[in-house]
Each structure stands twice: as C-alpha cells, then as structure tokens.
## 1
Amino acid sequence: MVDEESSGNSEEIVLRIRETLIAGSQIFLDYDGTLVPIVINPENCYADERLRSILMKISAKYDLFIVSGRQVDELRKFISLDINLIGMHGAVAYIHGKEMPLVRDFYSYRERMRKVIDMHLETQYDGLRVYDKSSGILFHLGLVPPDRRDGPSARIAEIAYETGMELYRGKSVLELKIPGVNKGDAIRKFRNDLPCLIAGDEKTDESAFVKCSECITIHVGSGETVAEFRVMDVAALRNILDQIA
Ligand SMILES: [Mg+2]
C-alpha cells in the first residue's frame, strides 16, 4: 500500500517499469480518469492525438489492453485504434476484431436486465432514478423521501432474487450486478507469464490490483489504494507511458 510520501516520483516509476517489462509484456489501462480526465459529458470522451500516439507506440512494443466500465463499442469509437479492449468492468472483451463475453450467461443476464429496465420502476416510485450500466442496473434513491424508500428497496431485492443478479446496497443507491463481473478476473483470463503493468483510478481497478498483485500497479489520483505506485493525475501517467513506449 502506498501513501502520498512513499508513492515515488515519476522517474522511479519509469525506471521500475523499464527494468521489469520486456517486449510483449502486457499493459492493462483503465480509460476514464486514467488516460483521459473525467469530464462532465461522458458521451464525448474522445482520445486526443497525443493519447492516440502514445497508445500506438505502447501497442507496438507491448500487448496493450484498455479495461473500462464502458461498452466496447464506445471505446472503439473514442480511441479508434486496433487494440484489445475489455469493457463493462470485465464482462466483455474485444480482441482481434471479435467480441467475446468473459462471464457465463452474459447475454442471458443482459436480456433479464432489459426486462427490468422495461418495468419503468421510476414511474411507480416517485424520485427513483434507474440507470443501465451495461454490467448492472443502478437504482438511485437520493430523490426518494427517506420514509418512502422501503417500497422500492424491497421491490429491487425481489428483482435480484428473480433475476439471479447480485444486489449491492450503497448509501442512497442499490445496484443489481451480473454475478462474477470484475476487472481483476477479466485481466486474469488474459494474463501471460510475462511481467505486467496495470493502471487505474477507481475502486473497480483496486480489484485488479489485488487479484494481480504480481504486476506493477499504478493508482491515478488521490484516495486509498493497494497499488505499488501512485501518480497524481492523467497527465503524469501519460508522461510515464510516453517514456516507456
Ligand atoms: Mg477510471
């Protein structure tokens, strides 16, 4: 685990990567908050020319994967390079031009999710917001008066039971998730025996850091992490990638 003091500067990180990775080594990079800054309008998150040029250089030398919560079609549109993609937090991959599910019964769960979305629960419970997150459905109860949350909460728990999806309870949110979807397991499915680098900025990336602890791991930004290194922002990570390419 790193803290601000012991996180090491960029030079140390570059040195460590250069000493460890070899040609053909794998590099798994998150997208939002890691390669591009978090933006207000996430539908418009295109890779700029500098990023595309860094990714092209990286993929000429290493086996590069972008691992994101986004759908692979979105990533293909934003990055527009012939590289390996793992989307929806590890539910689906796009490798050599072919989409492949990484979890059992993925398309069947998507079908069940579509039916849940079609129930339009937000029209039955005032203030409830429902979001299709591709690998799950997020129910936001922030605008539901606290004394009226039991109804929708019980209904969502019932749906979890009926669909066989995992139920996560947050502070003002409930989330139904396709069982077994996480970045760590997805990366493990592709890992070879060579040294490897993983970088990301979110809680979902922490699962990858834990499950792939043999890899060099970099956390982008503030917040707690189990990663070996920390960089403060997207620009710092890009500079490191530029130097190892
Ligand atoms: Mg991210």
Note: Residues 184 and 208 are 4 Å apart (CA to CA).
## 2
Amino acid sequence: MKVALLQGGRSLERGVSLRSGARVSEALLSLGHEVESLDLGPDLVSVLEQMQPDVAFIALHGIEGEDGTVQALLELLGIPHTGPRVAACQRSMDKSLSKYILREHGLPTPDWVTYSEAAIRDFGAASSFQKAVATVGLPLVAKPASQGSSLGVKVVTRVEDIPDALITALSYDSRALLETWVSGRELAVSVLGDRALPVVEAIPTDNNAYDFEARYEIGGASFECPAALEDAQTEEVSRVALAAYVALGCSGFARVDLILGEDGPMILEINAIPGLTETSLLPQAAEAGGISFEEMVEQILDLAC
Ligand SMILES: Nc1ncnc2c1ncn2[C@@H]1O[C@H](COP(=O)(O)OP(=O)(O)O)[C@@H](O)[C@H]1O
Ligand SMILES: [Mg+2]
C-alpha cells in the first residue's frame, strides 16, 4: 500500500512524534509498503492530493495531530486514516469533555472542576476556589484541559496555591481542571481494535511523587507489563478502559490512563494517538500480548477507515 506517514507537527510533543514516525516508517517499509513521510505545513493538503495515498498513518501527538484537525482534513479528502476519527479525537483531547462523557456512562473518574481563562479573568471565578476545594478536596491536581506528557500538571496541597497552579495550567490551554488527587498505582491500558492489551504499570523510580514531568523522563519511572495485579483487578481495569474507549467513540487504537486506588480504577484520560516509539506503552503492551511491533503497525493500518 501507498502510505502517507504524518509525523512531526507543531505541538509540544513534536519530538515524540518524530520518534514514533521513525519507528513506524521502518516497520511499514519492512512490511513491504511504500512510505512517504510528511510533516505538517502549508502544503499538506496539496501534497496529499498529489500523492493520492491509499491510507494515512497518523503518528502525530498533541494539538492538531491528535485533536481532530488533521483527521478532519483527511476525511474531507477521502483518505482513510489510522486511529480514532474526528469526533473521538476531539472528545479525548479535551479532558473536561472526556470526563463528562465518562460520568454519563457511569465510568469512574476523579471529581473535578473546570475553569476557563475567561471565568477567572472576567467573572471573578477566583473567589470560588474554596468551593472548588470543597468539591474535589486536597490535595488536588491542576492540569490543562488538553496537552500531554504531563505538561502543566501540578499537585496542590493548599488552597492558596491554586492561583499559581492554574496560571501554569492555563499557559498551555484556555481551560484547566482542578481534579481530586488519587493515590494509587499508575496504570495504562492500550486498546488495539476491540481488544484491551495487557496492563502496563508505571513504577516511579525515585521520590518524585509530585513531579510528573520528571517521572516520564528517562529513568523517572520503570514500566512493568503485564502489571502484577490480581486476575480480578486486571479484569476490572481492562473492562473499565475498554468501556471508556467505546464511550468516547474511539476506533483503531488508543490508550487509557488510570490510577488504581482504594476504590478501584479511576480513569484520568484517554490518549487518541498514544506514543509509538520503542519505549512507548502501546508497543510494550502489544509485545506482552504476543504482537510484534510490525504486526501491531499492520493491524493499525488494517483498522484504518
Ligand atoms: N487526579 C490525579 N491523581 C493523581 N495523579 C494524577 C492525577 N492526574 C494526573 N496525575 C498524574 O499526572 C500524570 C499526567 O496526567 P494526565 O491526566 O494523564 O495528563 P497527560 O498525560 O495528558 O499530561 C498522570 O500520569 C499521573 O501521574
Ligand atoms: Mg496521561
């Protein structure tokens, strides 16, 4: 097949995307496909129209690549693409919207409050922080509604620290969440097609419990797959993750991030286009499920629509 491999882009996760793209390109070539790698730029549409690919493999992360922008263009051009379609991308990219949908489906996600920049700047929302604390409790986590790789995520232990944390989160997006901090084991469930892959656990290697960005830098966490869980826990975590994937309308693949706390699994977010580098969680989970990287790429391609 003639594959347009979309990688790079303008999001803060450009670097990860280039690494995902390089690994995917290698796999596609070894599978015998014809591959042309494209970065996002003003000529994207004309290049795609000229190339007439059979399918677009989207190895983009973050804004524009993962939020439905590129998917909408491809769907307009009639080019099948990998991963979730436009609406599912939009729902997953927006953590506040995702959580409302999860709640509507009776799926567990921590309590939260969403603040827009306008609410704080123009409507005096700052005087509601005490109320927010009454809703979500302390500690709480402040995070931008969209973004990835833990960018702008901060734990707040005192109400007077909320403004600073919100300013940080709002520097990444025009909306931010204050969410109940959940103590527990950090798990990720990747879904390929309609199958939940073995659960991955991120185990922090040092005492950086509150510094999530550091945790995901090399050496900040080690990953165990399959996670050492009881069968019933694995079953419950996988069930909830698969239900979240379905609730958001995902297809092809996605990764659901959860925390397994005292009250069972709590869903933090759904990533419509999870990392595809050698060290990323989806490839690790596939491997543990007996699916090689090449087989995984071929399956993702087969699921394109
Ligand atoms: N409510 C929460 N309770 C505890 N830890 C959290 C919570 N929300 C986020 N975190 C931590 O921050 C990391 C990133 O948060 P997440 O919501 O997955 O956003 P993203 O990965 O898109 O940056 C999580 O993997 C987890 O370590
Ligand atoms: Mg995450």
Note: The first helix runs from residue 14 to 30.
